[in-house]
Structure formats: C-alpha cells, structure tokens
Design goal:
5-stranded mixed β-sheet, about 400 residues, globular, 3-stranded antiparallel β-sheet
C-alpha cells in the first residue's frame, strides 16, 4: 500500500476511534464497567483527552493470565482432550495413557505454544488459545504440532515491512539464533503512532514477541515459543529471498528436492548434484542489493536461513570439542547432513580443487561427523566469487 494511502487509512481509523471514545465519555455515567480489547496500542494525542477515563491494564500482573490458557487450566478443562491427543501421538489406547504421558504431552505443548507474558513483572505466562484449540481439533499425528496461530493470521504487509527494517537496520541478525530484544521503556509503553513505532514494539503488539523479564528502564522482549520463532523465520525468509509462493524446487533430472507445503524435506539419499543444484537455486533467489556473498560464512548463512525459514532444524557454526562445522541440517532425529564451505575469490592463488580437498580434510580431522546413533552424510563445497555460485561439491567418505 503506498504511503499516501496508508496515511489516509490511519486517519480514517483515528476518526472512527475518536467518535467511539467521544460517545464513551459522553455516556460515562451510564456505564458501570466497560472492557475494550484490541491489537495495536499507541498514544495518539487526539485520542488521549477522549479516552482519559480508561485504564490500560495490558501489563498489569494481576491480569497476566486473562488472554491465554495456563497449564493448570488446560489440565482442568481439557483433560479428556489431552488424553485423546496423547493416545494418537504416542500410538496407545486411551485407557493406557498415564499421567506421565499427559505431562510429557503438556511439555511438548509448552515448547510449541506456551511462553506468552503480558505481565510487567515477567512472572506469569500463558499458552496461545488459538494454537491449543487448533491442536485439540487435529487428529493427524504427523502434523499435530503445527503453526496454527501463523496459518490463521498469515503475513500482514506491515509485518513484512518491519521484518525488512529489522534486518536492514541491523536490529536482528537473520543468520543467528537471536532471541532477546532490548527496548527503551518509554518507547515500549508510549508509541505515538504506527509510523513512529519501532519494529520490536510492533512485533510485540502483533504477537511475535513477548515480555522476557521484569521491567526496568528497559524492556526485554523474546520469542515466546517454537511456533512464533518458526513464524518469524518464515517472515524473514519471505523478505530476504523474495519467495512468497514457496514454490516447489526440483533438480534438472526431475528428482524432487524440497516439498514446500507446510515444511521442507530433503531426501537423505539424494545425489550430490541434486544438492548442489538446489543450493545454487537458493543463492539465486537472493536479490543482489540485499545480500553480498563475500565469504564462505555468508554463503553458508544464506542457505541456513532459507532452510530455517522452511521448517528444517539447522545449526550454523555447529561446535564439537575440536572445531565447528559451517552448517548442520537435521532431516530427522537420526539423519543429518553436514556441510563445510570454502570460498574461491577472484584473486585466489589456490585452485577450486585445492580448496575442496582442504574442506574435505577439515571435516575428517575435526570429526564433524562423529554423532552417536545418527546416520550422517558430509559434504565439502566451493563457492566461486566469479561465477557467483557453488562450482564444486563432493561427498566425504566417512
């Protein structure tokens, strides 16, 4: 939406709110109690005098659990649903579901959907109501833990624009696992308009971030749970890779490499050429003015972010007791891909083959593939600055 249209739209909403608050103030003596909810909170000077009889309880500790389910409430009101879903998830008859099974399922639910805090002391936290209800309605074991909140809300344009600001202004490093954002308390509590609202505050108000600890002169925000972390990864990936349609990518020989419905899946038995072509397709998606692949870390990080935004579990710079591999991708709990990248600059004295051999040797000497009870495939890759793509890739014999 062009900026002029946005300003007209905001002006229209402000006019409607002014009329609403004017009526509330006029007939205030007739009301015993009014409870108003919303999404975006900011202090518009034109509204303050009309709404000065309203108390904002958004971060009052005594109301910290009003906008979600606590763990105790889920056990009290949805116990039969917990047993039903536990039977499906653990593949047992309902009569064989134990209290421990229920607690374990609640622990998984907490990882995915708990963690929202609306308490300025940072003490209370609640589960997402939308996500919990969606979970209880889903009888499919394979995708029981899904992105219910994100799938319902989609990606509003305002959030795509703010994901861009977060990256461009270096508020967040998209290639890291950053999970904490620090905001000045005044800017958090008293944003004057949508235009002046800083990105972390907007992400808090739209549900992506939540309160991490007690307020001081600064407010600490974090991703509340796995569902929202995944949602934000998708948001960033959509911006950085300009890939809103999440199209199915295939190698030239027709072998499917990734299936982009709700998640991404790499085949453990796919060929080296398939992986190389797939990675080059990823790198080709990045607009030249948004990212510069000027060393092996940047190349590895680009692929890391793309896969991370498509629901794969990835680790960048994954460490062991000897060293750290550039990229580790978990296909499931027992299958892992390991990648070591090297960079062939235009003025390099070493050949691409020399760099490839060096990467292969590093994988072996640093024991990157020594992961217990896991099938591992390890790959060495060479990125050419001149060709702007991966020019060599080989699998390391383990």
């Amino acid at each position: 939406m062009p900026k002029e249209e946005q300003e007209k739209y905001v002006s229209l909403i402000t006019t409607i709110l002014k009329s609403f608050y004017a009526l509330v103030k006029t007939y205030n003596s007739y009301f015993r109690f009014i409870f108003i909810t919303g999404i975006i909170r900011y202090k518009d000077a034109a509204l303050l005098t009309l709404g000065n009889t309203i108390t904002d309880i958004s971060q009052y500790p005594e109301f910290g659990t009003i906008a979600g389910f606590t763990r105790e409430e889920i056990k009290q009101y949805f116990y039969d649903n917990l047993v039903c879903q536990a039977a499906i998830y653990y593949d047992k008859a309902q009569e064989n579901i134990s209290d421990l099974d229920v607690e374990n399922l609640l622990d998984l639910l907490a990882t995915w959907y708990d963690g929202y805090c609306f308490d300025n002391l940072g003490k209370t936290h609640v589960f997402s109501t939308i996500s919990i209800l969606g979970f209880f309605k889903n009888p499919n074991r394979e995708n029981m833990f899904s992105d219910y909140w994100f799938d319902l809300g989609g990606i509003p344009t305002i959030l795509i624009n703010n994901a861009k600001q977060l990256v461009d202004h270096k508020i967040i490093n998209p290639f890291s696992n950053q999970n904490l954002f620090i905001v000045d308390k005044t800017k958090f509590l008293s944003p004057q308009s949508l235009d002046s609202m800083i990105s972390p505050v907007l992400l808090f108000q739209t549900g992506y971030l939540t309160i991490a600890r007690s307020f001081t002169n600064q407010v600490y925000l974090k991703f509340p749970n796995l569902e929202l972390k995944r949602a934000f990864n998708t948001l960033q990936s959509s911006y950085l890779f300009n890939d809103d349609n999440n199209s199915l990518l295939r190698s030239q020989n027709g072998e499917a490499v990734i299936y982009n419905e709700a998640s991404v899946c790499l085949d453990f038995n796919c060929s080296v050429d398939t992986l190389k072509n797939f990675f080059n397709q990823i790198l080709n998606l990045i607009p030249y003015n948004q990212f510069s692949s000027n060393d092996e870390a940047a190349v590895a990080s680009s692929i890391f972010l793309y896969l991370k935004g498509r629901d794969l579990i990835c680790e960048a710079e994954s460490q062991n007791c000897i060293g750290r591999s550039d990229l580790k991708v978990y296909l499931d709990s027992h299958q892992v891909f390991i990648f070591e990248f090297t960079y062939l600059s235009e003025n390099a004295t070493a050949s691409a083959k020399d760099l490839l051999d060096k990467a292969q040797e590093q994988i072996l000497t640093q024991r990157y593939a020594a992961i217990a009870d896991t099938k591992v495939r390890a790959f060495a890759l060479v990125y050419s600055q001149k060709e702007k793509q991966l020019c060599l890739m080989s699998e390391v014999k383990l």
